[in-house]
Each structure stands twice: as structure tokens, then as C-alpha cells.
Amino acid sequence: MEISGYKHSFNLNSKFDVLDLGSIIYDGIPLCFNYNHIIYSEDIIRYFNEIFNSIFSIESEKYIFFSNGETIEWDTFEPLFKIILDTANKNNCMDRFFLIDSNCSLTLKHKNWNYLGIPVGLLKERLSLCDDFTAIKKRNIEKHFLSLNKREDKHRTDLISFIKHSKKELYLKTIYSYSDLEDDNPLKKILDYDYKNELHSKYDLDIKEWHYNSFCNIITESKYDFREQTPFVKDNFEFETSPIHFTEKLAKSVHAEQPFIILGSPNYLKKLKELGFKTFSNWWDESYDLILNYEDRFEKISELILDISEWSLPKCKDVLLEMEETLIYNKNLVKRLMKDYQYLNLMKTYKLNNTKKVL
Question: What is the per-residue DSSP string for 281-294?
């Protein structure tokens, strides 16, 4: 059976050995995806060598390593990835080595090994099973904007500060949260369910009534600013901008049939359209997407937010009705992509849980 994906396909008659990179944990630390950069000790390097020497000693037609969710932080991951490549090379299986990442902005320059950038965050099946969907015609639009934020980062702080302190009183027109802050931070705001750590996995994939009671979602994606790439990335990849990472934040808006403004990496909307999605340039200025400098891009987005905030709520509902065809198209496209990438759920995945017993 041949399952086609975005610019690639896999034959599922082959044997797959898949390792979820996010499950490689050492002393409670995720080695491949870590927001706080760590220094790798000799013990960690030795542990990584043990893992991948064991993996590549197993005879397989393909060796696939999958970043399920967060995109790879190359400046952190690079030393460990070089171990993967070294062990793959020693075992003569470089041509069978695949790295699947959720960064859609990189293209491999060569064919020494295989890299696939896949919009993993858009492929959350649970979102497509939402039981409480409210059709656009039946929605009561109470606020202009929605912006749900959890982990602290500069672009989120900039946005919430702008909303809270705007002379246009945007805080009265926006349903917003900024939950993972210290209790004494004046920007901290938790909505009607508690963002406790043990509940994150449950609530992160929920579409709440806020998506249906607000007009436009201001999405602060995980990556937002251009950063200098490492020499390894420059040698191995072609790229135009900083990482483009489509997450569940966008997926929730698409499944809820809600328009969005993206405070993320430059060329985010451009890449989204390359995947086949339609955006909202027929209704407002999306030129912010092409601005490379973060401060200039944020200023342009702020102007757009202020412009939309001047609309009456009845106008917001009318525009939403005009957008309905586009919003339904995007929702159906996500469902088609989920089918295209269903091999991600069909492959057998190995997970490692803080142990040196490999596979």
C-alpha cells in the first residue's frame, strides 16, 4: 500500500523501525527537545551512543526518527544528531536513515540521508472529533479576538502587554490568557479552567467555546524571530527564514472554522499557502508575513489588530459569514492531510523512558 504525503511517500509493506525522538530522556531531561539549552555531559553522550548503536544494529529497510510535536532545536540537538549520523554511517545505513521533523522551513541540500519537514501540529486527530462544534451561522460573536498563551516568551509578552495597555482598551475586546507566569507577574491571566501542569495534555487539544464566541484568533506560534543558524544547518539545509512550526494552536482555529492572525516566523502564511491553505488577504492586510525584522513585523500586526478592533461586532459576524467558504475549505484540507500522513500513526514506534535498556 502506497501512502502519499507532501512531496514524498512511503511504502508500508516495508519494515519500519521508528524512534520517537521526544521520548529520549536522561535524568528527567528531554535530550532532543528542550526549551532551556543544556550542556551534554560525557554520560549523556555515552548514553546516546548506546541507543543508536543498538538501533542501527537491527536489520531494517528504513530507520525513521520522528519529532512528534516540538520542532528540533538544532543548536541544542546538533551534537547528539552527529552521533546518530556517525553510527548510521558506521552501520552502512545512511541511505535508509530518515529524520522527520515538524519544521517546514528546511530543505536538505544532499541525498546522504533523508529529511522530511511535516506539519505535525496540524495532524491532531482528536481535534477532528470535536463534539461541540458551533456552525458560523449560529455563533454569537461577543469579542473581536481570542489569544491563548501559556509558556512565557518575548512575543507573547509583547502581545499581552499591547492588549492590556492599549488606549483602545483591547483587553475589553479580547479573550486572552497568559498562564505559565509567576503569580506576581501582572500579565498573568488564567481563564475559567485551571492551567495546572497535570492538565496540560488534556486541555491543549480542546476547542473551547471561546473559539466560537470570538471573531479572530491571534496565534502566537512557538517560533517567532529569525535566528542565526548553526554551521551544521547551513552546510546541510537550504532555508529562507527561522523555523516554521505549525502547532495545535493553528489546528484548533482551522477545525473551529475561525480566521487567524499569526505572530510567528516570517513567511509562515507563505508556507501555509504552499501546503494548499487559503488565508485572509481578501479581508485584511497580510503583508506582515513577509517582514523579516521582528519589531517591524510586530508593529504591522499591532496596526492590523487595532484596525479590526474598530469593527462593530455585527460587522465581524458578517465578515465571518463571507469567510465561511474559505474556512470550510481549510478544515477539509486538514482532514485530507491527515489521511495523507496516516502512515505516521501506522508505523511502529519505539519509545525510551529514562532507561539504558534500549529497544
Answer: TTTS--GGGG--SH
Strands 260-263 and 114-117 turn out to be: unpaired
Which grid coordinates belong to 344? 505516521
Q: Which residues of the chain form CATH 3.40.50? A: 125-336
Q: Where are the beta strands (DSSP E) in 58-102?
A: 62-66, 97-101
Between vectors from CA 102 to CA 112 and to CA 233, what angle results, nearest 5°? 45
**Distance between CA atoms of residues 140 and 319, nearest Å:** 13
First-to-final CA distance of the chain: 27
Q: Which listed CATH number (3.40.50, 3.30.750, 3.30.420, 3.40.960) goes with 2-118+341-350?
A: 3.30.750
Full-model pTM: 0.84
Fold assignment, 125-336: Rossmann fold (3.40.50)
Of 3-17, 103-117, 132-146, 249-263, least confident by mean pLDDT is: 3-17
